[in-house]
């Protein structure tokens, strides 16, 4: 029976064959062993592309001769939309970009905005410690997804179960502190949205004590496992020279042996006061990146413990009432909204307080004209934000340097010359999040 969809036509580069399913043997020439290069699409709807990523692969048999990444399928226009919202409203946009590390998106934005406002040194110490603690918990949850999905894509389904099991513990803490499991808009210009609940410190400390024992399940199963190493050792190879040429950062860069980490080289939010190690490997492959993520989770737990020890009573929002928004926010008896005492003050005791609160929420605050670049170390590498203000209550321009976008450039260097099955391992070791790529 003739397949009506198995068509052929001539192009300027030669004959193109369109085939489906198991009909490779119907292509003239291939059955006789003639060498032909076939172009296939992997994605954008594919379970191993970490989102809607399209990989255009040119194959010669099972060997990848050319690999190109096609992006844009998840484009949300976040950066453009921010130009029509107040500075504080921008937080709820940026938190949705790299949806696996929302606290890093928020922190990079707020740190840059605070530089423009000139209030970096006025951020309360308690707010700084809470920011670091939430970011490091977020680093753990992000790495757990990387290990879980990477394991699942290579056939280690138990690794997927372990990864998402531990991630639930972290997300429960996020919900306890912010009210949401993700996209919390918790880190705000000037501090954080609200203080920790009364029982948060005890529950975080309990989780930090339990996680090392449970994380050991993944390392016991996969570290030095001959099957796992067969799928990841010397796969997705990219050396230091390649990383430097492409601007690669994060675990991919540190797997080449270079201990580059902005928390050490350009500290922010008080990271210079914490003791931790920058984890490196010298394998330059997928296996080394896997080991680095395992080690970084241990270091993050160490930092969270130090945060809990450093927490002291105090405010969590800058004192300047022209910036602090929402002013004196706290959870009421109904589980949401402002405290009754604050509502009574602004609604029934002071007309000036009511007017100020109304203008601050509806119009927002003015930011001096200028521009700034602020960068932090996210789970995937250098996350930078370029903010431009024209002196108004809304951003003139906000542009993110997302590490997933930059690191995806390494796809061709990692995959070309290798097997098509190894493309899965290479992309998993990059750990791109398409929400951060497309924005």
Structure commentary:
By secondary structure, the protein is an alpha+beta fold. Helix content is 44%, strand content 13%. It contains 17 helices and 10 strands. The protein has helices spanning 78-81, 90-94, 102-117, 125-153, 157-178, 200-222, 226-232, 240-246, 251-254, 262-265, 286-310, 340-349, 351-362, 403-407, 411-415, 420-430, 434-438; strands at 8-11, 14-17, 38-42, 54-60, 63-70, 187-188, 191-192, 370-378, 381-389, 397-401. A hairpin with a 2-residue loop joins strand 4 and strand 5. The longest helix is centred in the first third of the chain and has 29 residues, at 125-153. The chain is globular, with a radius of gyration of 25 Å. It starts with 7 loop residues before the first strand and ends with a helix. The relative contact order is 0.17.
Largest beta-sheet characterization: 3 strands, antiparallel
Shape: globular
Structural class: alpha+beta
Radius of gyration of CA atoms, rounded to a whole number: 25 Å
Q: How far apart are the first and last residues' alpha carbons, in Å?
A: 47 Å
Order of helices and strands: EEEEEHHHHHEEHHHHHHHHEEEHHHH
Brief rundown of the structure:
This protein is of the alpha+beta class. It has helices spanning 78-81, 90-94, 102-117, 125-153, 157-178, 200-222, 226-232, 240-246, 251-254, 262-265, 286-310, 340-349, 351-362, 403-407, 411-415, 420-430, 434-438, and strands spanning 8-11, 14-17, 38-42, 54-60, 63-70, 187-188, 191-192, 370-378, 381-389, 397-401. β8 and β9 (381-389) form a beta hairpin.
